Amino acid sequence: MTISPYIFDLKSTEFDELVLANSDKGPVLVNFWSAKAAPCVMLMPRLVKLCSEYQGRFLLGMVNTDEETDLVKRLGISSLPYVRIYKKGEVVETIRGAESEKSLRQILEKHIPQVLSPLHTRAIKQVQTGKTEEALQLMAEAVVETPNDVRIPADMLRLLIREGRFVEAEKLAYSIPQSIQNDPSISLLMTHLEIFNASPEDDESSIEAINILYKKLNEEEVCLNVHLELASRLLKIDDIERSLEQLYKIRQKDRAFRNNLGHRGMLALFSLPGNNGEVYETYRKKIMT
User: Are 247 and 260 in contact (CB under 8 A)?
Assistant: First the structure.
């Protein structure tokens, strides 16, 4: 297939090189098709059109299931048409059936790096000059303009969290459509908020309040909410190590507490910038054992 340099016929022997290796650089779509299946015939030109239009922002591999039976069996493909999207060597999404061009575009938007919209770009510049309100207004307009770009609400949440406006951030988070909430970048931020909002917002997590909570830990068998409030207050003063310690204790005592918040909270803190230090590595090892 020579329609586009970004489209190729895929053989079983080439799968690791053309799909898995290339998926480290960007998304690779693998289309499993058969000329005997009418839905496959409908889907293929839509994929070809989009791949040509996106000009290398993703690759498209075509697997003829009538010929590549070993590969089909190895990957467990049992229905057609069937498309897998690979990133970093992993399947990040599957598409079953002859999706419309509009639906395919929406799926691609989630996985293909996009140029920032003009409004989003202007908002970033406002953030860089310290104009928070102007930035938030521009981002709100950008969300309306490009509602499927998850980066915009993610940046809004990060900005509100950075400014300590946790209640506003939580309201924003739960106003986001469920499909966007499920994006890893949003769900991690929502977990951050869940921890931040576990302690009062009005006293700025004073050292005195933290000491009182530690005293409670030493004096009695405490409920998990005390550990959580302490983790929250410590996080607000950027004491990541001791915040992780409290989340780990929650994880040890009750994995079901607030939908496994101890574990989710630790993963959220692992996602913070500069997360490659000794403290992070220590707790990563703890949750792996």
Answer: no
201 within some domain: no
Domain CATH number, residue 266: 1.25.40
- Does 124 share its domain with 105? no
Residue 195 in contact with residue 232, Cβ under 8 Å? yes
Pairing of strands 59-64, 28-33: parallel
* Number of domains observed in the structure of the chain: 3
Where does 20-79 have alpha helices with state H?
Answer: 38-54, 69-75
Smallest CA-to-CA distance from 64 within 92, 44, 94 is with: 44
Cβ–Cβ under 8 Å, residues 15 and 73: no
Q: Which residues pair with 84 in a beta bridge?
A: 30, 94
Secondary element (H or E) of residue 186: helix 184-196
Asked if 83 contacts 65 with a C-beta cutoff of 8 angstroms, the reply is no
Model confidence pLDDT, tens digit, residues 216-269: 887 766 689 999 999 999 998 889 999 999 999 999 999 999 999 999 999 989
